[in-house]
Amino acid sequence: MLSKYIIETYNLTKIFKLKKGRDIVWIKANDNITLKIEEGKVYGIAGPNGSGKTTLIKILCGLLLPDRGSVIVDGYDVLKVKRNINVTSVNAIFAIQDLIQEFIGYIGRLPTYKFLKYCAYYMGFDAQKVETGIDEALDMVSLSGWKDEWPVKFSTGMLRRLELALALLSDKPIYLLDEPTTHLDPLSAKKFRNILKILAKEQGKTILFTSHLMDDIEDVCDRVVFLKNGKIIFEGDPEYLKDITYSKEVIRLEVIDESSVLFDRLKSLDGVLEVKKLKSSNGLGIFNIIIEKDNADVIPEISKVVLKNGSSIFEIRKIRPNLNEVFIKIYEESEQDET
Ligand SMILES: Nc1ncnc2c1ncn2[C@@H]1O[C@H](COP(=O)(O)OP(=O)(O)OP(=O)(O)O)[C@@H](O)[C@H]1O
Ligand SMILES: [Mg+2]
């Protein structure tokens, strides 16, 4: 029976040997990684510097071979087919980046659409698809206005977009991208994420990308993989990760005509763990009220206290933690555990 997963790794381990002065140090860049990637989904790989993200992506596209474990991509055993996995199944950003860099040295003074065509032919992409798809690909990455300009004039962010345009001209089902949004301004990064969404949701492509920007992951990923010292410490839905990371919730309360006793009254409410008063520039009294998770009874009590003390509610809502906070909390706590 065919697997429903388009990528599967089992106990993947990669060890690097590093010389430090006279000593030799062994680094487990990937440590027993077992991962099942569903087709048509976007996966984000996150983790601190050196946690093994790039190593994992390189192994999946056959650029590095693991020391132990197995890697099946699109039905192929990568340990056997090695880099050829990029010919059949994978748009690996490393290969594309290298090719574009090299070609810029030779033909970087051709109009961009011609440049892109030559790159695509060199990569063996279907000529018909390249011919008919080039305008759309340049349009998707917002480079249509530059199609007659030379790629030598491109900024770093524009080159990132050109790389993606080249990948878009292929028929391959998998995109493996290492920090694709680095160097993109916030608007370009958002457009880039939208392209990833279209590729996954409308064209059924599978995308794995690494990022340090939790905005990327939150906005586009169906699932996130958190790595630490080469090991997976979480794999799953980013929303679920938020839910399990915090045992407390924060209620943001904004009141008109704040009474002088309100802060103390809120603090003494049953179920309230802590109250923080925030600075306000618009005359409203603003508080963060920390409560136990899923203690819904507290919110009506807060409202009552506000009204009883002569103030009125401008806004009251739960603050959902963002993934950036979750990242910091998880890795800060695990650093403390080690000390
Ligand atoms: N060619 C190599 N030789 C020796 N050690 C290496 C090599 N490549 C990576 N490493 C080590 O493997 C570990 C994982 O590196 P990797 O580049 O995969 O991390 P990363 O999560 O991508 O980090 P970053 O966020 O900085 O990009 C690091 O300790 C790194 O020093
Ligand atoms: Mg890296």
**Widest sheet: strand ordering:** 6-7-8-3-9-10
Query: What fraction of residues sit in β-strands?
Result: 25-35%
**Unreliable sequence segments:** none
Q: Using DSSP, what is the number of strands? A: 14
**General form:** globular
Question: Total number of helical segments?
Answer: 13
The helix/strand order is EEEHEEHHEHHHHEHEHEEHEHEEHEH
For CATH, the homologous superfamily of the largest domain is named as P-loop containing nucleotide triphosphate hydrolases
Number of domains: 3
Name of the CATH class of the largest domain: Alpha Beta
Bound molecules: adenosine-5'-triphosphate, magnesium ion
Largest pleated sheet: 6 strands, mixed
| CATH level 3 topology of the largest domain | Rossmann fold
